[in-house]
Amino acid sequence: MASRIRAEDWECPLSTTVEQVGEWWTLLILHDAFDGYTRFDQFQGNLGISSSMLTARLKALVADGLLERRPYQTNPVRYEYVLTDRGRSLRPVLVALAAWGNARLAPEERSMVLVAADTGEEVEPVVVDARTGRRLDDSDAYVFAAGPAASADMLSRYAGRVPLRAQGA
Amino acid sequence: MASRIRAEDWECPLSTTVEQVGEWWTLLILHDAFDGYTRFDQFQGNLGISSSMLTARLKALVADGLLERRPYQTNPVRYEYVLTDRGRSLRPVLVALAAWGNARLAPEERSMVLVAADTGEEVEPVVVDARTGRRLDDSDAYVFAAGPAASADMLSRYAGRVPLRAQGA
DNA sequence: CAGTATCCTGTCCGATACTG
DNA sequence: CAGTATCGGACAGGATACTG
What is the pTM of this model? Predict the structure, then answer.
């Protein structure tokens, strides 16, 4: 779970990711972790999740390598949950989700915004192509295409619908 | 559902968005829609979803204003589902999710990548601040802060943990 | 083709109680 | 404080059958 998926099991980046992330609780717990919370009762208090469910979710998060469980005191031993690099790498997903909510769902007077920690300036998160800087927003200028390892049935599904890339390289 | 949320019900951009998006099926159907599919049996064939579940999801999507249901022929009348602007605005979320899967989950030889439709060049999606162009990736340089409409209990939760913005403006 | 209706199973998830 | 164990309801969601 914690690492990469076997090539045979990899079909679609989206559905596989969705399956791996598992449930929405995952994202909400991670959000708390990004806010600096690390402890069981903090998560429980903030999220209003039952202890049994929280236990299950935390176990899954640790098994998936998104959180690390480590003792922060001995006698009695107590554990906290801290983000791994892998966990931190999910931040753009949370940001994109929250940005959409702010733009499309929030009342005019937003209650929660993303700001730069140093300047306090409000941030407007957008998804762009790192190489060209062009926004990926809602244009049809970007499509999902079959890569080198695409299987036959995937190619048949996508054939003619999206530009195929060179198979060799 | 289709429009904004009442101010009293707005607590956290993430949890509210998650609630509104509803289920993972929503994202997967939307992904198909972005690929240009519009019809019931296309969705069903691609996703392997049961017809009853698909009906329910499509209804919710239409009610939420993410898809538009419209007849594409008469006698007998047949319907198709096309993306609305609101639906298209969710694209960055899908892209962020898929990008994470590609980066962290996929086998080395990725099977599906995002490419520019004109050049065929592969795209590397990142989330940045539209104003400064700085990446929001995994840095701690950005935090969620209380906005003008924050309620008292939200402020108490976030007080001291994240920089608060001016209450007045 | 584009659904609707019904049945059925799994499991998400809160409530409650208990533990070192 | 940081969980574990158990119970039970609600519902997600597939299978199947039926319709204009």
Answer: 0.84
Chain A partners within 8 Å of B88 (Cβ): 138
Beta bridge partners, B133, equal: none
Domain segments of chain B as ranges = 7-84
Q: Is the pLDDT of residue B110 over 90?
A: no
Chain D: nucleotides below 7 Å from protein CB are 1-7, 12-17, 20
Closest CA relative to residue B2, chosen from B54, B53, B69: B69
CB-CB under 8 Å, B144 with A112: yes
Amino acid at B40: F
The whole-angstrom separation of Cα B94 and Cα B27 is 7
Cβ distance of A147 and B123 shorter than 8 Å = no
pLDDT in tens, A62-74: 999 999 999 999 8
- Provide the CATH topology of domain B7-84: Arc Repressor Mutant, subunit A (1.10.10)
The CA–CA distances, whole Å, from B81 to A92, A161, B55, B141 equal: 29, 18, 12, 41
β-partners of residue A142 are B116
Asked if the model's pLDDT at residue A41 lies above 90, the reply is yes
Residues A80-92: what's their mean pLDDT? 93
Q: Which helix (H) or strand (E) holds B71?
A: strand B67-73
Closest alpha carbon to C1' of C6, residue: B52
> Per the CB < 8 Å rule, is A96 touching B96?
yes
pLDDT at A126 over 70: yes
